[in-house]
Amino acid sequence: MALSEAEITPQRYLQAQTRWHPSEIAFWLATLLPYVLFPNYLALASQIAIAALFALSLDLILGYAGIVSLGHAAFFGIGAYTAGLVSKHGWGEPLTGLAIAALAAGIVGYATSFVICRFRHLALIMLTLGFGLLLGELANSAGWLTGGMDGLQGIHMWKLGGYFHFDLFGKTAYSYALAILFVLFLFARRLIHSPFGLTLRGIRENFVRMPAIGAPSHSHIRTIYTIAAAIAGIAGALLAQTTETVSLDSLGFERSAEVVVILVLGGPGKLYGGLVGAMVFMVARDRFSGIEPQYWYFWIGILLVGVVLFLPNGILGGIMHLTSRWRRS
Amino acid sequence: MLPPVFGVLFDGLAYGMLLFLLSVGQSVTLGMMNFINLAHCSFGMLGGYITVMLMSRYGWPFFATLPCAFIVGALVSVGFERTIFRRLYRASELDQVLLTIGVVFMSVAVAAYIFGTDQQPLQLPAYLRSSLTFLGLRFAVYRLILIVVALAITLALVLGLEYTRFGARVRAAVDNERMARGLGIDVDRAFAITFALGSGLAGLGGALAIEIVGLDPSFAFTYLIYVLIVVSVGGLGSISGSFVAAVVLGVSDIAGKYYIPQLGAFLIYLVMISLLMWRPLGLLGRR
Amino acid sequence: MRGPALSTRGLAKSFGSLVVARDIAIELPRGVRYALIGPNGAGKTTLINLMTGMLRSDAGRIFLDDEDITQLAPEQRVRRGLVRTYQINSLFPHLTALESVTLAVCERRRVAGTWWRQLAAYREEIGEAYEILSALTLGPVCHRPTRELAYGQQRLLEIALALATRPKVLLLDEPAAGVPREESKELFAAIAGLSREITVLFIEHDMDIVFRFATRVIVMVGGRVLVEGPPQEVAADPQVRAVYFGKAMGKSDGLRRESVP
Hints:
The complex is a heterotrimer.
Chain A: H1 10-17, H2 22-30, H3 33-37, H4 42-64, H5 73-88, H6 94-116, H7 121-141, H8 143-146, H9 171-192, H10 195-205, H11 209-212, H12 217-243, H13 253-266, H14 273-287, H15 293-310, H16 314-328
Helix pairs in contact in A: 4-9, 4-12, 4-13, 4-14, 5-6, 5-12, 6-12, 10-12, 13-14, 13-16
Chain B: H1 4-33, H2 40-58, H3 62-83, H4 93-115, H5 126-129, E1 131-134, E2 137-140, H6 141-163, H7 165-175, H8 177-182, H9 187-213, H10 219-234, H11 239-259, H12 266-278
Antiparallel strand pairs in B: 1-2
Chain C: E1 6-15, E2 18-24, E3 27-28, E4 33-37, H1 44-52, E5 59-64, E6 67-68, H2 74-79, E7 82-85, H3 97-108, H4 123-135, H5 151-164, E8 169-173, H6 181-192, E9 199-203, H7 207-213, E10 216-221, E11 224-229, H8 231-236, H9 238-245
Parallel strand pairs in C: 4-9, 4-10, 7-8, 8-9
Antiparallel strand pairs in C: 1-2, 1-3, 1-5, 5-6, 10-11
Helix pairs in contact in C: 3-4, 3-5, 4-5
């Protein structure tokens, strides 16, 4: 049922863009495959889901608002440690633990957003890097709280919903992580298709022009930064709850760099980029986990150089480019 | 009797000189072309490994290896610049960050593959490992020489910038790249030479650093962070800014480790964040 | 009689020893079309930057409808109706024309921060954006990304963005810059068609256009206002002729006398 362009009002046109594309539905159906095809790899699958959620949170600020952060793992780590500490000190209910972790990460995100929104370019990159490193040092020194190098011990989660306990096969863990990922994905999708999502893209496309159309950019940036921090915190909390450990690397520079790589690999600003990137990256890492770390670093390096030079919009960008060319011919 | 604080200041100054050598190239090239090169310390690391290799495998004396560290750092960097980096001068910051981090990863992997992950031993001649005693405090001869060499290089840089034609072109390009091009200055060539010079200095710094902080493949990362701090605090394109920032950072780091060791690097990051918030363009930056 | 739409008093700005604006005092009465002319480097764009708040002035005050806006941030001045366009397009490359203008409308209506409803549900805002674009002949291309539009269309989009904020005073920085002659006539016809409620100040180099569309002209030289008045007077002013023609008085077609509509 194709109406000519003249008959479609602008509103209907914009509405049509928010419809679920068949490939999206296929994607989410595919996330159910691990139960059937890879039942022994459900632990890896939950790791992928958690990494995907983390990358999604970064996409909101980097892909959509154009804020380059090299310290996003700070919020991941805050969420992880908060959830871990809450459980360690007696409250092991998973969902409320998630909520508390989100709140903690969101508050810190809100506080730092006041600084973040005022800077651009190199200063912004350095500030995010600095905050991340600072938090890492704090976590290291506060061994009495975080367990320092040994990590947080004594986390024990109660049954999810009072019924599902976190079993050894990781079935509950994967279902849990996947469900949370999906819910938050729906939230992000709605946000992107709202006026606020348009505003974020405006900020990314032309930051200087925004005040000239009356936009309070700083306020917008603070909002999205806080939301992204809270979601990253949830991802960290998921990790803490499903693995029942938290260590310093949950907020280290490596994790901040890794999530940037994942997002860029998949393609920023496309909502699914982080998810696709997480799948590819984590599976690759699992495959190559046997080899020496230096080889891993080498291939990551080549990957980065290659993506920047030849795949500027990541895997998804490359796919979209190919499909549009195929459609034209 | 000199109180120990002078010893701390001396060590801090020496460390700061080292950081300056490692950072000055980065600051000027960032100021000229706004190109974020995170692989800068990889060239430093390369210089260090060249020195180690020449000394341990070919028996070269230490001071003879230093010019080699400089030259190799310069040449290899030009190779990268001409082939890969120059495609990204107009690219986004994120792309520059990602590409150059990729190069860092590769360099770390290659270094680990060739040299292993252990600290590289360095056998300096006896006179370099000795120390002078002055007013009751011991001052390492090596650090003294480091300070002198770095100051001499700083002087050469500043004079060169002020009084040579090339220096004038560099200053023009840092101030206003478009206008400099409009005036007929070959900014690309000036940039390539500056880039080589800066990377060469980094290589020299890497070689000189071995005795003070050691050398292993993680050098490229660890000192990258310090370099970025020096550059963003000191101001892009400013030699004097880098100098001041490097000294401040060096002294703060050494003093922090001496007086409040449990704070670790916390102080450094806090200082950087505070300074950046106060002066986002750096203490003496122009852009 | 209401006061002027926009006025400045003693506006000044220097960069070190370079004085870019010197004691600028102008008054723009409501609804008037003002042309701002002057040689390159006279400080015309600087004046717009000062008025909109992109540049902080060293001294002087700016009044919008009797309100002192000197201390307000740029987006606050936009909210009060002082809007500008850019000489070099400053648009959103990957957003479609419709999205760009809708964004501006949403910001004006203060709904740009809402995330719980879909954009498509904001029918009024989208409708208004579409109307603005249609009035500027951009209706058919409204779903194309900005970077795919022709240059002339992009210049029109610049103006559409400004109109979406419902300006009271519109500052146009060389609106026809880079646009071929035939298209620029269209563009200015669109500007001429703007409501008389809006006060327009445009920077222009083409004297034809100045004579056709401006009711008054301000001439700036070296950061100062040299002369101000109706186009014929300004054209006849000896100071202005000296600035523009110097010794070469051979060509007089630059400052033709022509009646203004």
